[in-house]
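TA notes. Do not distribute before section.
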Amino acid sequence: MSTSTIHDIGYRHYDGRRNGRAYVLRSLYVHNLRAAFGLGRPARAKVMPFLLAAIMLVPAAGSVAAFAFSKEPDALIRYSSYVNIMQVIVAIFLATQAPVLASREVRFHVIPLYFSRPVGHLDFVLAKGAALATALLTLMAVPVTVLYLGGLITKMPDSGEQLLKYLGALVGCLLYALVLAAIGMVIAAFTPRRGFGVAAVIAVYLISATVVGVIQGIADAETNFTLQGWAGLFTPFNLVDIVQVRLLGAQSSSPGVAPGVGGGVVALALCALIVVGSIAVLYRRFRKAGLS
């Protein structure tokens, strides 16, 4: 006969500080931002984001060096055009990192564990979206800043005008980051396997860019410049470029730009609709995944 003993160790209440919703939201944001650059993960997870970030810097550094030797203003790439010129690299970064933030928890069915704690569904979506947008903003804004600082160091004329152009380009980078993060997160959230998510984001980018490019080419051949400009609303890089040109006074870096201030307002409204709509879609998606 064996005997058993029950030890009454009591229940110890937590009397420490409760950090609240803001702390939870900040922690989720920082965790996802680190994940976007592979920090806190194996070394192979860091290769792609940091390689792409380095590639983004190369043209900026080369442009500054060319301007330093030639002193020709045209040698320095326009701040507002830099993202559009490097859009393929930005798209690859989005395609490879959006699934890291949006699909892993769905695939491994761990979202209910997040919501077993005091984490709201909207907080979960906002933290992930803001983290990806911040990662994209960093990717794009750093080389633009290198262009600006390099121009200042090498005695770019009209420093006041250059500052305004630089600030306008930063606003453009923010719009690019918000729109691209919104689109990438939605696509990745519905493709639980990372490989499929990468392929889906790239496919959406290539298809939209190709179709719009064909339409704009035909419109240009037919001298229908109005159609050529409005067609740019249907691909994200041209969409934000319209806002930059019509509302921020930048020079166009797209084949066609929607006419007038009205075109810029429509493009900005569409950007806002994409961001808000993505939040609504992701809210429903993660809420459903949290119940499964």
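Switch to the second chain here.
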Amino acid sequence: MILFVDALTVIDFSYLCAKRGAVGESWIVDMTLHGQLNEESMVLDFAKVKKQIKAIIDNTIDHKLAIPSALDCQLDLNGGRVSFDYEFGGHHLAMSAPDEAVCVVEGEKIDEQSVIAFLKQQILPQMPDNVKDIEIALRPEQTSSFYYHYSHGLKKHDGNCQRIIHGHRSLIGIFFDGVSMPRLQKEWSQKWEDIYLGTQEDLIEHAQLKYISAKQEDYSFAYESSQGYFEMCISKERCDILPCDTTVECIADYLANKIKTTYPDKEVKVRAYEGVGKGAIAYA
């Protein structure tokens, strides 16, 4: 018997790429379970699929930085902390954080296939005996509109968003007087392609870093939150500094006001997404 659940959840995370650095991503998860009927004449109760399997995904990869095991990034897991130092395409990225902020995925790169294999290893052993196999499909949101990949960290967040490098693939809508502006949507999606969005108040001097070393052309960030102490440095070319937190509400408001300065005679509306099917709207 086969049980399927489409759009079980969405994985919002970042991954370390040899060419692109930290890439924010959002994948919709479709799940298929193969097995025998249990005493309830079910393969598995839908409520348990949604709750139990989603919890496993949340605990293993969601809102983390995924690092491929074969990537030479000087990865160090020691004493409850994780750190790495990596150079890619002439750019630099380093981080130190509580070890729960990272997951290591077997393989040379992070893609749908490697993450599917990783998730299957995590999920199948925790299924009841009547579930013999699982299939997982990961897919981005289908769209003909413009989107960008971004990573960030939210130190004031009570949950896993406080992890300093996690991210999303996000659509962006920009409107003047109620009319969509595809040119500006494309412009901002290109400007923020594979970007790290940093908060100005989290900037520190390089000498204040405790666990990693920055290069002269880097920005350095650090903060303490409920999960512990986080710090990172990144090439300035791969980062944009916002004068506010990088919640989706603040991103939408920042973009609306930034665009308004160039087009003061227009009513500007920004519809900013955080991953799939959620986001914020701001006007200026």
